Predict the structure.
Amino acid sequence: MEVNPIVIIGALIYFGILFWIGWSSRKASLDASDFYVAGRKVGPFVNGSALAATYFSPASFLGLPAFIFIIGYPFWWALVGIIGGMPIATLLTAAPLRKYAPTSFTDYYEDRYETKWMRLAAGIPTIIGGFAYVILSLVGTALFMLAILKINFTFSVILSAIVVFAYIYYGGMVATTFSTAFQGITMTIASVVAAAWVIGYYGGLNGLTDAILSNNPNFFNPPYANEVASHKLVGMWTGVIGFFFTWHFGFSALPYTVVRFFTTQDIKAARRSVFWAVVVGGAMYAGLVIIGSGARVLIETLHPLMQMDTIDSALGVLSHMKTEYGVAGASVTDYSMIAAIEAFQQPFLLAILAAGGLAIAMATAAGWTMVLNVLLGRDLMGKVFGSPLPEEKPVLITRIMTVIIIVICMLFAFKPPALVLDISGAAFIVILCSCGPPLVLGIWWERATKAAAMINILVMTFLSCFSWMYANTVHGSAHLFFLNKNIVTPHQFYWVFVGFFFFIVLSLVTKPCSDETIKKYSLDLRPEA
Amino acid sequence: MFKGMPKIFWIGMATMYGWCFLFMFLEMTIQGFPLIRVLGIPFCYIYNFLWVVNIIVSFLYFSMEE
């Protein structure tokens, strides 16, 4: 496996276009409003493409095909669940939050629940999820750097951290909204072109299906209807449903997408942004399904490493990559989709895929780093603890925060704690079950109370983190119910529903907010108002 | 709760969840359901392409509101 100049040229062209867009749009960045929310002047298609690029991460681009590679067809429903959750955001949170027009994710929590300490409470799960996401983005960037340059994984992580830092250094949301939109288009083209190549190679969907079945006869087996399901994690209905719901509500309530609703021109553009994000993201996901499904048979029949005497399976190829390039932790399985496309030995195809992979990883790293910057700088330093620096020198504070965030995440990325999709699932569940109910019901239920919001965030953050880590360490998998390892509950997904129920019960027995607050931050944000 | 939410929201939600859970149920009760040939290709490629349901729901959400 040698470095191919065409792949490097492809990556350099991608970086060239990206930094040109960043540089030219940077000139438009004039004040703090421009820096944080792009001056609220981004149209629906651009914002929708940027939404897709930010929301979808290496957990999508590498992680979803890797899980299809491991689990088989029933995992396709997880992808349907993710895209199916996107339209919900249109009316549930995108339009109301654009009407309210805050600067930061935590603004709503302080205003709706009448205390600045809500910023700190909402900040805890957001910081946990944010750091997890920057780590997995660095791992994703590093795996694509490895695919392009064939360098040791540790050097690859360091190089990725430098590239991501340089990208964010170029500016705030103005630079990253327009260049992120370009990244959204790039990642979709990469996925669709690679999938079309796979389908074309097998002469259509029937040929692809026959090849998959000849390699793994159980691949298309859902539970119950067949003697053997495709994998033990989808051996019962809770596994299929659990993977469907793990990421399902993320688009409505995760801070790194919610902030993109703030950057649109108006409510109409916010609603239309979601439509374009579904179009762009759905096309990319359709491609990922094909790549993930064909990965094992492609690697085992075409990959050049299969010619080695010591390698006799796709997992053998990945193990070889792990040893050869020093890929630490579990993340070598995330390389399966790259290995599948490498198997074609077409440099231009790998160049397109690498550009798409770098695009999605860098966009997510930038999106989450901006969320953490605003949260740690403007919100906690400025609003909670009273420092004037974040408002006076937003660029300087952002750059200092960025250095700290990237360095900490780089140290974790050297030895990833889990597969990128597992890191993502944990982050989603922690944030959704804790911050989700106070956000969604704060808008749509007058009775939502301050005490309920505070208690819900703290209790659900603890329960979701504890149960995920307990299942992962004691049962050996975060996908098994932490109280009974015979039940499959991917990522302890049930906490999202428990969180909403818990929040409602707490709100009914605690004191509601003032009538003025309810009118301004709940009733007036709804479409009827 | 959810007072003022447009009716189209609930119609869209019911469509999306109805579609997904109906086909999940059929898969788990009928052996070989995903691979039944429909229009000459395995059925799962059609019901699991149908992107389309979410695009339609998303389009209805913004167009009906406007």
